[in-house]
Design goal:
The complex is a heterodimer. By secondary structure, chain A is an alpha/beta fold. Chain A has ten helices and ten strands. In chain A, helix 6 links the parallel strand 7 and strand 8. Chain A is globular. Classes of the chains: A alpha/beta, B mainly alpha.
Protein backbone atom coordinates (compact mmCIF):
# COMPACT_ATOMS: atom_id res chain seq x y z
CA UNK A 1 0.00 0.00 0.00
CA UNK A 2 1.23 3.48 -0.82
CA UNK A 3 -0.14 6.48 1.03
CA UNK A 4 0.17 9.98 -0.37
CA UNK A 5 -0.14 12.68 2.25
CA UNK A 6 -0.75 16.24 1.10
CA UNK A 7 1.76 16.29 -1.76
CA UNK A 8 2.64 19.76 -3.08
CA UNK A 9 5.08 20.61 -5.84
CA UNK A 10 5.86 23.88 -7.62
CA UNK A 11 8.15 24.87 -10.46
CA UNK A 12 9.35 28.48 -10.61
CA UNK A 13 6.48 29.59 -8.39
CA UNK A 14 3.86 27.73 -10.42
CA UNK A 15 1.97 25.17 -8.34
CA UNK A 16 1.77 21.89 -10.23
CA UNK A 17 0.51 19.67 -7.41
CA UNK A 18 -1.77 21.17 -4.78
CA UNK A 19 -2.00 18.98 -1.70
CA UNK A 20 -2.80 15.58 -3.14
CA UNK A 21 -3.68 12.81 -0.67
CA UNK A 22 -4.77 9.32 -1.59
CA UNK A 23 -4.07 5.63 -1.02
CA UNK A 24 -2.87 3.14 -3.64
CA UNK A 25 -3.93 -0.31 -2.52
CA UNK A 26 -2.01 -3.57 -2.75
CA UNK A 27 -3.07 -6.13 -5.34
CA UNK A 28 -5.04 -3.51 -7.26
CA UNK A 29 -4.46 -1.49 -10.39
CA UNK A 30 -4.56 2.12 -9.20
CA UNK A 31 -5.03 4.66 -11.94
CA UNK A 32 -4.11 8.33 -12.01
CA UNK A 33 -6.09 9.99 -14.77
CA UNK A 34 -6.35 13.54 -16.01
CA UNK A 35 -5.73 15.77 -18.99
CA UNK A 36 -2.27 16.39 -20.38
CA UNK A 37 -0.52 18.93 -18.17
CA UNK A 38 -2.70 18.18 -15.14
CA UNK A 39 0.31 17.01 -13.08
CA UNK A 40 0.02 13.22 -13.44
CA UNK A 41 3.62 12.62 -14.44
CA UNK A 42 4.97 14.99 -11.78
CA UNK A 43 2.89 13.15 -9.18
CA UNK A 44 4.21 9.80 -10.36
CA UNK A 45 7.80 11.09 -10.33
CA UNK A 46 7.30 12.33 -6.77
CA UNK A 47 5.89 8.96 -5.72
CA UNK A 48 8.83 7.02 -7.15
CA UNK A 49 11.37 9.47 -5.74
CA UNK A 50 12.63 10.96 -9.01
CA UNK A 51 11.40 14.35 -7.77
CA UNK A 52 11.22 15.64 -4.23
CA UNK A 53 7.83 17.08 -3.25
CA UNK A 54 7.96 20.58 -1.70
CA UNK A 55 5.80 19.33 1.15
CA UNK A 56 3.87 16.23 2.15
CA UNK A 57 4.98 12.64 2.47
CA UNK A 58 4.74 9.32 0.65
CA UNK A 59 4.44 6.24 2.83
CA UNK A 60 5.35 2.83 1.42
CA UNK A 61 3.79 0.21 3.72
CA UNK A 62 4.42 2.35 6.80
CA UNK A 63 7.88 3.48 5.59
CA UNK A 64 8.00 7.23 5.11
CA UNK A 65 9.94 8.31 2.01
CA UNK A 66 10.71 11.74 3.46
CA UNK A 67 12.48 10.30 6.49
CA UNK A 68 14.38 7.59 4.60
CA UNK A 69 18.17 7.74 4.38
CA UNK A 70 20.17 7.06 1.21
CA UNK A 71 20.63 3.36 2.00
CA UNK A 72 16.96 2.82 2.80
CA UNK A 73 16.00 4.56 -0.43
CA UNK A 74 18.32 2.34 -2.45
CA UNK A 75 16.79 -0.65 -0.68
CA UNK A 76 13.28 0.60 -1.46
CA UNK A 77 14.20 1.14 -5.10
CA UNK A 78 14.97 -2.52 -5.52
CA UNK A 79 11.30 -3.10 -4.66
CA UNK A 80 10.08 -0.77 -7.41
CA UNK A 81 9.45 -1.62 -11.03
CA UNK A 82 8.79 1.09 -13.56
CA UNK A 83 7.39 1.08 -17.06
CA UNK A 84 8.19 4.37 -18.78
CA UNK A 85 6.14 6.07 -21.45
CA UNK A 86 8.85 5.51 -24.07
CA UNK A 87 9.86 2.11 -22.59
CA UNK A 88 13.35 3.47 -21.70
CA UNK A 89 15.10 0.29 -22.75
CA UNK A 90 18.88 0.62 -22.97
CA UNK A 91 19.70 1.04 -26.68
CA UNK A 92 23.13 -0.49 -26.43
CA UNK A 93 21.88 -3.76 -24.92
CA UNK A 94 19.90 -6.66 -26.37
CA UNK A 95 16.43 -7.33 -24.97
CA UNK A 96 17.78 -10.16 -22.84
CA UNK A 97 20.60 -7.97 -21.50
CA UNK A 98 18.06 -5.26 -20.66
CA UNK A 99 16.13 -7.74 -18.54
CA UNK A 100 19.35 -9.11 -17.07
CA UNK A 101 20.59 -5.65 -16.08
CA UNK A 102 18.73 -5.35 -12.72
CA UNK A 103 19.73 -8.92 -11.94
CA UNK A 104 23.40 -8.17 -12.65
CA UNK A 105 23.23 -5.11 -10.41
CA UNK A 106 21.25 -6.41 -7.45
CA UNK A 107 20.78 -10.15 -7.56
CA UNK A 108 22.93 -12.71 -5.78
CA UNK A 109 21.84 -15.46 -8.19
CA UNK A 110 24.45 -17.34 -10.19
CA UNK A 111 24.99 -16.27 -13.82
CA UNK A 112 23.04 -19.29 -15.08
CA UNK A 113 20.10 -18.64 -12.78
CA UNK A 114 20.06 -14.98 -13.78
CA UNK A 115 19.74 -15.94 -17.44
CA UNK A 116 16.99 -18.44 -16.53
CA UNK A 117 15.09 -15.75 -14.64
CA UNK A 118 15.47 -13.25 -17.51
CA UNK A 119 14.21 -15.81 -19.99
CA UNK A 120 11.28 -16.69 -17.71
CA UNK A 121 10.28 -12.99 -17.51
CA UNK A 122 10.58 -12.55 -21.26
CA UNK A 123 8.52 -15.69 -21.88
CA UNK A 124 5.95 -14.44 -19.39
CA UNK A 125 5.38 -11.31 -21.48
CA UNK A 126 5.44 -13.30 -24.72
CA UNK A 127 8.84 -12.25 -26.05
CA UNK A 128 10.45 -15.61 -26.66
CA UNK A 129 11.57 -14.63 -30.13
CA UNK A 130 13.27 -11.38 -29.16
CA UNK A 131 16.06 -12.45 -26.77
CA UNK A 132 18.93 -11.38 -28.95
CA UNK A 133 17.32 -8.40 -30.69
CA UNK A 134 18.07 -4.77 -29.88
CA UNK A 135 15.29 -2.35 -28.85
CA UNK A 136 15.51 -0.58 -32.21
CA UNK A 137 14.76 -3.88 -33.98
CA UNK A 138 11.38 -4.54 -32.32
CA UNK A 139 7.98 -2.85 -32.44
CA UNK A 140 6.63 -0.36 -29.88
CA UNK A 141 4.35 -2.99 -28.35
CA UNK A 142 7.21 -5.44 -27.99
CA UNK A 143 9.34 -2.71 -26.41
CA UNK A 144 6.61 -2.12 -23.82
CA UNK A 145 6.46 -5.83 -23.09
CA UNK A 146 10.24 -5.99 -22.76
CA UNK A 147 10.10 -3.02 -20.37
CA UNK A 148 7.46 -4.86 -18.31
CA UNK A 149 9.71 -7.93 -18.24
CA UNK A 150 12.57 -5.75 -16.98
CA UNK A 151 10.30 -4.14 -14.40
CA UNK A 152 9.20 -7.47 -12.90
CA UNK A 153 12.52 -9.27 -13.04
CA UNK A 154 13.36 -8.56 -9.37
CA UNK A 155 9.84 -9.44 -8.15
CA UNK A 156 8.94 -5.85 -7.24
CA UNK A 157 6.35 -5.01 -4.61
CA UNK A 158 5.32 -1.86 -6.43
CA UNK A 159 4.86 -1.38 -10.18
CA UNK A 160 4.54 2.07 -11.77
CA UNK A 161 3.47 2.62 -15.36
CA UNK A 162 3.61 5.99 -17.07
CA UNK A 163 1.14 6.02 -19.97
CA UNK A 164 1.68 2.37 -20.91
CA UNK A 165 -0.48 2.65 -24.02
CA UNK A 166 0.90 5.78 -25.60
CA UNK A 167 1.78 5.24 -29.23
CA UNK A 168 0.18 1.80 -29.41
CA UNK A 169 -2.70 0.56 -31.53
CA UNK A 170 -5.94 -0.38 -29.67
CA UNK A 171 -5.36 -4.12 -29.92
CA UNK A 172 -1.82 -3.94 -28.56
CA UNK A 173 -3.02 -1.52 -25.87
CA UNK A 174 -5.57 -4.06 -24.67
CA UNK A 175 -2.90 -6.77 -24.57
CA UNK A 176 -0.59 -4.52 -22.53
CA UNK A 177 -3.45 -3.65 -20.13
CA UNK A 178 -4.29 -7.33 -19.66
CA UNK A 179 -0.66 -8.16 -19.07
CA UNK A 180 -0.34 -5.46 -16.40
CA UNK A 181 -3.51 -6.67 -14.66
CA UNK A 182 -2.40 -10.32 -14.76
CA UNK A 183 1.03 -9.46 -13.40
CA UNK A 184 -0.45 -7.31 -10.64
CA UNK A 185 -2.55 -10.21 -9.43
CA UNK A 186 0.15 -12.81 -9.96
CA UNK A 187 2.80 -10.92 -7.98
CA UNK A 188 0.31 -9.29 -5.55
CA UNK A 189 1.80 -5.89 -6.33
CA UNK A 190 0.69 -2.35 -5.74
CA UNK A 191 0.37 -1.07 -9.30
CA UNK A 192 0.03 2.61 -10.10
CA UNK A 193 -0.77 3.56 -13.68
CA UNK A 194 -0.72 7.01 -15.12
CA UNK A 195 -3.00 7.22 -18.14
CA UNK A 196 -5.48 9.24 -20.11
CA UNK A 197 -6.60 6.35 -22.24
CA UNK A 198 -10.28 5.74 -21.48
CA UNK A 199 -10.20 2.13 -22.67
CA UNK A 200 -7.55 1.41 -20.06
CA UNK A 201 -9.55 3.26 -17.43
CA UNK A 202 -12.63 1.16 -18.14
CA UNK A 203 -10.63 -2.08 -18.28
CA UNK A 204 -8.30 -1.64 -15.34
CA UNK A 205 -9.71 1.05 -13.07
CA UNK A 206 -10.04 -0.68 -9.70
CA UNK A 207 -9.10 2.53 -7.96
CA UNK A 208 -9.11 5.78 -9.95
CA UNK A 209 -7.78 9.19 -8.93
CA UNK A 210 -8.77 12.04 -11.21
CA UNK A 211 -6.47 15.05 -11.19
CA UNK A 212 -7.38 18.42 -12.61
CA UNK A 213 -4.92 21.32 -12.66
CA UNK A 214 -2.84 19.79 -9.88
CA UNK A 215 -5.75 19.02 -7.55
CA UNK A 216 -7.46 15.74 -6.76
CA UNK A 217 -10.95 16.25 -8.16
CA UNK A 218 -12.43 12.82 -7.75
CA UNK A 219 -11.65 9.31 -6.54
CA UNK A 220 -13.52 6.05 -7.10
CA UNK A 221 -13.57 2.95 -9.28
CA UNK A 222 -14.58 2.21 -12.88
CA UNK A 223 -18.17 1.46 -11.86
CA UNK A 224 -18.57 4.81 -10.09
CA UNK A 225 -16.97 6.64 -12.99
CA UNK A 226 -20.06 6.81 -15.21
CA UNK A 227 -22.41 7.88 -12.43
CA UNK A 228 -20.15 10.56 -10.99
CA UNK A 229 -21.60 14.02 -10.63
CA UNK A 230 -18.26 15.78 -10.98
CA UNK A 231 -18.48 18.15 -13.94
CA UNK A 232 -14.75 18.25 -14.70
CA UNK A 233 -14.53 14.46 -14.54
CA UNK A 234 -17.49 14.08 -16.88
CA UNK A 235 -15.93 16.55 -19.29
CA UNK A 236 -12.78 14.44 -19.32
CA UNK A 237 -14.48 11.03 -19.45
CA UNK A 238 -17.04 11.91 -22.08
CA UNK A 239 -14.82 14.10 -24.25
CA UNK A 240 -15.19 11.59 -27.07
CA UNK A 241 -18.70 11.63 -28.60
CA UNK A 242 -18.30 8.01 -29.60
CA UNK A 243 -17.42 7.03 -26.05
CA UNK A 244 -20.35 9.11 -24.77
CA UNK A 245 -22.81 7.29 -27.05
CA UNK A 246 -21.51 3.80 -26.44
CA UNK A 247 -21.45 4.31 -22.66
CA UNK A 248 -24.98 5.70 -22.77
CA UNK A 249 -26.13 2.57 -24.64
CA UNK A 250 -24.43 0.26 -22.15
CA UNK A 251 -25.89 2.11 -19.18
CA UNK B 1 22.20 29.51 -15.36
CA UNK B 2 25.40 31.32 -14.43
CA UNK B 3 28.93 29.96 -14.34
CA UNK B 4 28.93 29.44 -10.54
CA UNK B 5 25.82 27.26 -10.79
CA UNK B 6 27.40 25.27 -13.62
CA UNK B 7 30.57 24.72 -11.58
CA UNK B 8 28.49 23.67 -8.56
CA UNK B 9 26.38 21.25 -10.54
CA UNK B 10 29.46 19.89 -12.33
CA UNK B 11 31.17 19.30 -8.95
CA UNK B 12 28.13 17.46 -7.59
CA UNK B 13 27.98 15.29 -10.69
CA UNK B 14 31.68 14.46 -10.36
CA UNK B 15 31.19 13.61 -6.68
CA UNK B 16 28.46 11.21 -7.73
CA UNK B 17 30.59 9.83 -10.58
CA UNK B 18 33.84 9.21 -8.70
CA UNK B 19 32.55 6.63 -6.26
CA UNK B 20 33.32 2.92 -6.13
CA UNK B 21 31.42 1.03 -8.85
CA UNK B 22 28.49 -1.03 -7.59
CA UNK B 23 29.63 -4.03 -9.62
CA UNK B 24 33.32 -4.13 -10.60
CA UNK B 25 32.82 -6.80 -13.25
CA UNK B 26 30.27 -4.66 -15.09
CA UNK B 27 32.47 -1.58 -14.67
CA UNK B 28 35.49 -3.32 -16.24
CA UNK B 29 33.33 -4.63 -19.07
CA UNK B 30 31.95 -1.13 -19.73
CA UNK B 31 35.44 0.40 -19.52
CA UNK B 32 36.74 -2.05 -22.11
CA UNK B 33 33.84 -1.11 -24.41
CA UNK B 34 34.65 2.59 -23.98
CA UNK B 35 38.35 2.01 -24.71
CA UNK B 36 37.23 0.46 -27.96
CA UNK B 37 34.64 3.12 -28.79
CA UNK B 38 36.39 6.30 -27.67
CA UNK B 39 40.02 5.27 -27.97
CA UNK B 40 40.56 2.59 -30.58
CA UNK B 41 38.01 4.15 -32.93
CA UNK B 42 40.07 7.38 -32.85
CA UNK B 43 43.18 5.66 -34.22
CA UNK B 44 42.27 6.22 -37.87
CA UNK B 45 41.58 9.94 -37.54
CA UNK B 46 44.75 10.34 -35.45
CA UNK B 47 46.78 8.58 -38.12
CA UNK B 48 45.44 10.75 -40.94
CA UNK B 49 45.76 14.06 -39.11
CA UNK B 50 49.19 13.36 -37.61
CA UNK B 51 50.68 12.00 -40.81
CA UNK B 52 49.61 14.99 -42.89
CA UNK B 53 50.41 17.56 -40.23
CA UNK B 54 53.89 16.08 -39.78
CA UNK B 55 54.44 16.23 -43.54
CA UNK B 56 53.21 19.83 -43.85
CA UNK B 57 55.24 20.93 -40.81
CA UNK B 58 58.41 19.51 -42.36
CA UNK B 59 57.75 21.21 -45.70
CA UNK B 60 56.86 24.57 -44.20
CA UNK B 61 59.85 24.57 -41.85
CA UNK B 62 62.20 23.78 -44.73
CA UNK B 63 60.65 26.46 -46.96
CA UNK B 64 60.83 29.13 -44.25
CA UNK B 65 64.41 28.56 -43.13
CA UNK B 66 66.35 31.03 -45.21
CA UNK B 67 69.28 31.62 -42.88
CA UNK B 68 72.33 29.79 -44.33
CA UNK B 69 73.79 29.57 -40.84
CA UNK B 70 71.06 27.18 -39.74
CA UNK B 71 71.96 23.58 -40.51
CA UNK B 72 69.56 21.45 -42.56
CA UNK B 73 68.85 19.08 -39.69
CA UNK B 74 67.02 21.99 -37.96
CA UNK B 75 63.99 20.96 -40.05
CA UNK B 76 63.76 17.58 -38.31
CA UNK B 77 64.43 19.12 -34.92
CA UNK B 78 61.73 21.79 -35.30
CA UNK B 79 59.21 19.26 -36.62
CA UNK B 80 59.90 16.89 -33.73
CA UNK B 81 59.66 19.56 -31.03
CA UNK B 82 56.51 21.11 -32.50
CA UNK B 83 54.87 17.69 -32.65
CA UNK B 84 55.97 16.68 -29.17
CA UNK B 85 55.27 19.97 -27.43
CA UNK B 86 52.07 21.14 -29.01
CA UNK B 87 50.54 19.20 -31.84
CA UNK B 88 50.30 15.70 -30.35
CA UNK B 89 48.84 16.99 -27.12
CA UNK B 90 46.86 20.21 -27.54
CA UNK B 91 45.87 20.18 -31.20
CA UNK B 92 45.08 16.47 -31.18
CA UNK B 93 42.94 16.90 -28.08
CA UNK B 94 41.10 19.85 -29.63
CA UNK B 95 40.27 17.61 -32.57
CA UNK B 96 39.27 14.75 -30.26
CA UNK B 97 37.11 17.14 -28.23
CA UNK B 98 35.00 17.38 -31.39
CA UNK B 99 34.87 13.67 -32.08
CA UNK B 100 34.82 12.14 -28.60
CA UNK B 101 33.11 15.06 -26.83
CA UNK B 102 30.14 15.20 -29.16
CA UNK B 103 29.87 11.41 -29.09
CA UNK B 104 29.70 11.35 -25.28
CA UNK B 105 27.33 14.32 -24.94
CA UNK B 106 24.92 13.07 -27.57
CA UNK B 107 24.92 9.51 -26.23
CA UNK B 108 24.28 10.53 -22.62
CA UNK B 109 21.87 13.29 -23.71
CA UNK B 110 19.82 10.78 -25.69
CA UNK B 111 19.79 8.45 -22.69
CA UNK B 112 18.54 11.34 -20.57
CA UNK B 113 15.70 12.43 -22.84
CA UNK B 114 14.59 8.86 -23.54
CA UNK B 115 14.38 8.29 -19.75
CA UNK B 116 17.06 5.58 -19.73
CA UNK B 117 18.91 7.46 -16.98
CA UNK B 118 15.68 7.79 -14.97
CA UNK B 119 15.18 4.04 -15.39
CA UNK B 120 18.61 3.41 -13.84
CA UNK B 121 17.95 5.85 -11.00
CA UNK B 122 14.68 4.15 -10.17
CA UNK B 123 16.38 0.76 -10.05
CA UNK B 124 18.75 2.26 -7.48
CA UNK B 125 21.74 2.28 -9.83
CA UNK B 126 24.12 5.24 -9.50
CA UNK B 127 23.58 6.31 -13.11
CA UNK B 128 26.41 8.86 -13.20
CA UNK B 129 28.86 6.31 -11.90
CA UNK B 130 27.61 3.56 -14.20
CA UNK B 131 27.55 5.65 -17.38
CA UNK B 132 30.24 8.30 -16.94
CA UNK B 133 33.05 6.63 -14.97
CA UNK B 134 33.81 3.95 -17.60
CA UNK B 135 34.03 6.68 -20.25
CA UNK B 136 36.49 8.68 -18.17
CA UNK B 137 38.52 5.61 -17.24
CA UNK B 138 38.55 4.24 -20.79
CA UNK B 139 39.61 7.45 -22.48
CA UNK B 140 42.13 8.52 -19.84
CA UNK B 141 43.75 5.07 -19.93
CA UNK B 142 43.95 5.02 -23.72
CA UNK B 143 45.03 8.60 -24.43
CA UNK B 144 48.77 8.08 -23.66
CA UNK B 145 48.88 5.41 -26.38
CA UNK B 146 47.06 7.73 -28.73
CA UNK B 147 49.59 10.51 -28.09
CA UNK B 148 52.61 8.30 -28.63
CA UNK B 149 50.97 6.89 -31.74
CA UNK B 150 50.32 10.44 -32.97
CA UNK B 151 53.98 11.40 -32.38
CA UNK B 152 55.13 8.39 -34.36
CA UNK B 153 52.70 9.12 -37.23
CA UNK B 154 53.67 12.82 -37.31
CA UNK B 155 57.37 12.03 -37.50
CA UNK B 156 56.61 9.42 -40.16
CA UNK B 157 54.79 12.10 -42.20
CA UNK B 158 57.94 14.25 -42.11
CA UNK B 159 60.04 11.24 -43.11
CA UNK B 160 57.83 10.65 -46.16
CA UNK B 161 58.49 14.26 -47.22
CA UNK B 162 62.23 13.65 -46.97
CA UNK B 163 61.80 10.42 -48.90
CA UNK B 164 59.61 11.66 -51.75
CA UNK B 165 60.75 15.30 -52.19
CA UNK B 166 64.11 16.94 -52.55
CA UNK B 167 63.53 19.41 -49.68
CA UNK B 168 65.66 17.42 -47.23
CA UNK B 169 67.48 14.11 -47.31
CA UNK B 170 66.15 11.24 -45.15
CA UNK B 171 69.42 10.93 -43.26
CA UNK B 172 69.44 14.65 -42.38
CA UNK B 173 65.82 14.46 -41.27
CA UNK B 174 66.50 11.44 -39.08
CA UNK B 175 69.59 13.13 -37.63
CA UNK B 176 67.43 16.22 -36.91
CA UNK B 177 64.69 14.32 -35.08
CA UNK B 178 67.33 12.62 -32.91
CA UNK B 179 69.38 15.74 -32.24
CA UNK B 180 69.14 17.27 -28.74
CA UNK B 181 66.18 15.10 -27.79
CA UNK B 182 64.62 15.99 -24.46
CA UNK B 183 62.66 12.97 -23.09
CA UNK B 184 60.75 15.24 -20.68
CA UNK B 185 58.84 16.68 -23.67
CA UNK B 186 57.20 13.26 -24.18
CA UNK B 187 56.20 13.03 -20.52
CA UNK B 188 55.03 16.63 -20.61
CA UNK B 189 52.84 15.84 -23.61
CA UNK B 190 51.37 12.74 -21.96
CA UNK B 191 50.62 14.58 -18.69
CA UNK B 192 48.87 17.33 -20.63
CA UNK B 193 46.75 14.93 -22.66
CA UNK B 194 45.66 12.95 -19.61
CA UNK B 195 44.32 16.19 -18.12
CA UNK B 196 42.75 17.16 -21.46
CA UNK B 197 41.13 13.72 -21.65
CA UNK B 198 39.64 14.31 -18.21
CA UNK B 199 38.32 17.68 -19.38
CA UNK B 200 36.80 16.24 -22.58
CA UNK B 201 35.06 13.30 -20.89
CA UNK B 202 33.81 15.06 -17.76
CA UNK B 203 32.64 18.27 -19.45
CA UNK B 204 30.91 16.39 -22.27
CA UNK B 205 29.29 13.99 -19.80
CA UNK B 206 28.09 16.96 -17.75
CA UNK B 207 26.36 18.60 -20.71
CA UNK B 208 24.85 15.28 -21.82
CA UNK B 209 23.70 14.28 -18.34
CA UNK B 210 21.79 17.50 -17.82
CA UNK B 211 20.31 17.67 -21.33
CA UNK B 212 16.60 18.37 -21.12
CA UNK B 213 13.91 18.44 -23.78
CA UNK B 214 14.17 16.83 -27.19
CA UNK B 215 16.52 16.11 -30.07
CA UNK B 216 17.27 19.80 -30.54
CA UNK B 217 18.44 20.05 -26.94
CA UNK B 218 20.70 17.02 -27.35
CA UNK B 219 22.25 18.84 -30.32
CA UNK B 220 22.72 21.94 -28.18
CA UNK B 221 24.27 19.87 -25.38
CA UNK B 222 26.65 18.33 -27.88
CA UNK B 223 27.69 21.76 -29.23
CA UNK B 224 28.12 23.15 -25.71
CA UNK B 225 30.23 20.14 -24.78
CA UNK B 226 32.62 20.66 -27.70
CA UNK B 227 32.87 24.45 -27.28
CA UNK B 228 33.41 24.37 -23.52
CA UNK B 229 35.85 21.45 -23.67
CA UNK B 230 37.89 23.30 -26.32
CA UNK B 231 37.98 26.52 -24.29
CA UNK B 232 39.04 24.64 -21.16
CA UNK B 233 41.72 22.74 -23.09
CA UNK B 234 43.19 26.03 -24.35
CA UNK B 235 43.06 27.53 -20.87
CA UNK B 236 44.66 24.52 -19.19
CA UNK B 237 47.24 24.36 -21.97
CA UNK B 238 48.57 27.75 -20.87
CA UNK B 239 48.50 26.83 -17.18
CA UNK B 240 50.18 23.43 -17.69
CA UNK B 241 52.84 24.85 -20.01
CA UNK B 242 53.71 27.43 -17.39
CA UNK B 243 53.75 24.81 -14.63
CA UNK B 244 55.58 22.03 -16.45
CA UNK B 245 58.00 23.82 -18.76
CA UNK B 246 59.09 26.97 -16.96
Amino acid sequence: MIQLEDICKSFDGKEVLKGISTVFETGKTNLIIGQSGSGKTVLLKCVIGLMEPDSGDIVYDSRSLASMGKKERTCLRSELGMLFQGSALFDSMTIQDNVLFPLHMFSELSAGDQVKRAKYCLDRVGLKEAYSLFPSEISGGMQKRAAIARAITLNPKYLFCDEPNSGLDPLTSIKIDELIMDITQEYEMTTVINTHDMNSVVTMGENIVFIHQGEKEWEGNKDDLFHAKNEKLNEFVFASKFFQKSTHNIL
Amino acid sequence: MNIVQHVGRYSLLMYQTFSAPQKWRLFLKQTWKEIEKLGADSLAITLIISLFMGAVMTMQTQMNIENPLLPNYTVGLVTRDTLLLEFCSSILCLILAGKVGSNIASEIGTMRISEQIDAMDIMGVNSANFIILPKIAGFVLFIPFLVIYSMFCGLLGGYFVSLFTDLITPSTYIYGIQYWFVPWYVYYSIIKTVIFALIITTVSSYFGYYAYGGALDVGKASTNAVVNSSILILLFNVILTKLLLS
